[in-house]
Amino acid sequence: MEEFNISQEKQPLVILSTLGNVSNGKSSLIRSLTGKNTMTHSKELKRNMTINLGYTNVKFYKCNSCKSPYCYQVNKETCNKCKRKNELKLHAAIVDCPGHSNLKETALSGSTNMDLCLLVLAADCDKDLISNDHYKTIKILKKEESTIIIHNKLDLISKDKAIENYEKIKELYNPRYIVPLCAQFGFGLEYLIKYIIESVPNPINDNLLNKIRMNLKASVIRSFDVNKPGTDITKVTGGVVGTVIKNGYLKIGDKIKIIPGLILSNGTNNPITAYVTSLKTDSTNLDIAYPGGLIGVGLSIDPSLTKEDRLCNNIIVKEESGVDEKNKIFKTFTISYEEYVDKIDIKKKEICNIMINSIKRKAKINLIDKINKTINILTQLPIAGEIGDSLIITKLGNVEVYGKIISYEE
What we know:
Layout lengths: L13 E6 L6 H9 L7 H6 L6 E9 L9 E3 L12 E10 L7 H8 L4 E6 L7 H12 L6 E5 L7 H15 L3 E4 L8 H11 L6 H7 L4 E8 L15 E8 L2 E2 L3 E9 L5 E13 L2 E3 L1 E2 L4 E6 L15 E4 L9 E13 L10 E6 L2 E11 L4 E12 L4 E6 L2 E12 L1
Parallel strand pairs: 1-4, 1-5, 5-6, 6-7
Antiparallel strand pairs: 2-3, 2-4, 8-9, 8-16, 9-15, 10-14, 11-12, 11-16, 12-13, 12-15, 17-20, 17-22, 18-19, 18-21, 19-20, 21-22
């Protein structure tokens, strides 16, 4: 990896995502692990609920002198028990997904990029229908083996009830790990940290190297105007987007294109060309950013274009080499699907929601071919992607179909 100078010290290379019903303790879990609150928007703080995708970074360490599981610690370069230097095992970004039923599609957009899922269940897990729907998403994304189930809020129930729930969880989810936890008071965190480290292989491997060597493709998850009201015009900085790099890499000075770009009131789109002026993950400045984690990308564009998530539902590609031969802008396309989740509940000419590369769109189902297992789709607004991109069709927030793009009409 020396040719790219990749280091976990500089940036996260893995994404952990929390899923589960509202009030199951997802945000509390992240606060206990990292000491940070992912609810930063005023509406979230006022209502005490996660509405937007929340991100923060965390470093998982291991002390090679202390016994398991207490040798596993978070954000501690020095062991808090024996005071010896810890070994950095994993630098990850954590995505806090909303749990309310009317925000399930926002949760889906966060979970599509995850390497490891933390499915948080509360004491009354057998009545938790929303978490059951989230587990369907895990299954359809084929992330069962990359999921840790957290049985949270055990301080609210008896030991006998906890054991009864444990048996129900095994029956409902057939999980790889079940971690009993009380996130609010930090009980059981050492075991969770251990299982996270053991579940994620060293991210600096040949798979990462192969991704880096591919053409740039990054999903825009958030976008911001970081200038405070009243900032002097000579001190105004360009717009900022929060991205997850899927392939390739970004460096300061790169010329990039945002597609499909700005969508006008008449439905047409205008791609945006810009230069990368800064790269940051949390408070760490970067010269180059690789796949994994959320990267804040400063751009040479008017900050009004990025205000209040206006550039979400876009992807970023490199502009330096001219036209991207793979990623195109289109509205009509065909997918092949592998399987239905339970029973399919979409019909020809029906309006559903689709999600591709974290781009969400309203779409009409033109044709369903059950023999060849293909579906032709028309989106109301342009999208961007390429052959082979994964796609999810949802109805009323529930996943109906998972497939891949096999053709499109430009």
